[in-house]
Amino acid sequence: MAYDVKVINELVQKESAFSEKLMGEVAKVIVGQRYMVERILIGLLTGGHVLLEGVPGLAKTLTVKTVADSLRAKFQRIQFTPDLLPADIVGTTIYNPATQEFRSKRGPVFANLVLADEINRAPAKVQSALLEAMQERQVTIGDETHRLPEPFLVMATQNPIEQEGTYALPEAQLDRFMLMIKVGYPQKSEEREIMDRMTSGSPTATRVEPVATLEELLSARSVVSQVYIDDKIRDYIVNVVHATREPAAYGLKELSMFVQFGASPRASIFLNLAARAHAFLKRRGYVTPEDIKSVGLDVLRHRVILTYEAEAENVTSEDIVRRLFEHVEVP
Question: How far apart, in whole angstroms, are the C-alpha atoms of residue 61 and residue 23?
């Protein structure tokens, strides 16, 4: 296996140039926020959907659009509002009087990168219109099923502080997002650079050049799927996910009263894939426990459903996930 890992390492060194070029181009527009950009790249490299949560003004929308522009990908932005209809997303059927036939008119979901902006502003029936697209990579319009382009990725944003006129995402939809990324404020020095750049009057302040293709992305994906992950690391992933369901089995009986439901098996799959992509971005052809810990919080934070006791004690799902990583034995 040592020889195989060496070969994979060489492949990773070759293919990771794609991600380096992409991150370098995005940095021309986005100051800081490297953590967010890396996590978006993990979604791109694995085909996993990404949910960005942060207060307004943190460049969530701009970052997604900049990544799409750097990638020569078809990009569509859907601004979610309370009066949005499912047909506004997936499309509808239109009657043609001349031919006396119905034809399908495809919606904005038919793109490589779909930005669902402020997804929690739309009611449940509109949010659920994305479910089939996110999970099956297809949509049904009328009585016809249409495949979505490859690659296809949903990147959604939501505001965590404004509650009026918003609808919480159902757990079934949250579970379909590979990563939930908490976007924080920039550093003071970064904010000064943002201010100077965005007030310079330069038309290039928000413009990037395409530096990668969808073919390069798909090629990189095939390498990510070959990144070596040892059986002990696989067991570690399952142990961490299982600990979210039965913390008492891992010496954390006091957390049992705070957890109503643990992470689903989808968490194990996504943790495996995200760890491989993280190792790829670090130019390694094998996964280490540190890769699991690095992406673990983003994969698990939205999958641990808390009890009323947790809310009363101000215990968050992030607190629980951190405690689990501290106690589950590392291989």
Answer: 16
Output the 3-class SS for 229-276.
Answer: CCHHHHHHHHHHHHHHHCHHHHCCHHHHHHEEECCCHHHHHHHHHHHH
Look at the chain and count its residues.
Answer: 331
Query: Quick one: which of 287, 290, 172, 296 has its CA closest to 241?
Result: 296
pTM: 0.85
Instruction: Give the Cα separation of 89 and 156 in Å (integer).
Output: 13
Predicted confidence (pLDDT) per residue in 236-283, tens digit: 999 999 999 888 888 888 888 888 888 889 999 999 999 999 999 888
- Residue 69 in contact with residue 109, Cβ under 8 Å? no
Q: What is the CA radius of gyration of the chain?
A: 21
- Exposure b/e, 144-171, CB count within 10 A at least 16 = b: eeeebeebbbbbbbbbeeeeeebeebee
User: In the predicted model, what is the mean pLDDT of residues 214-222?
Assistant: 85
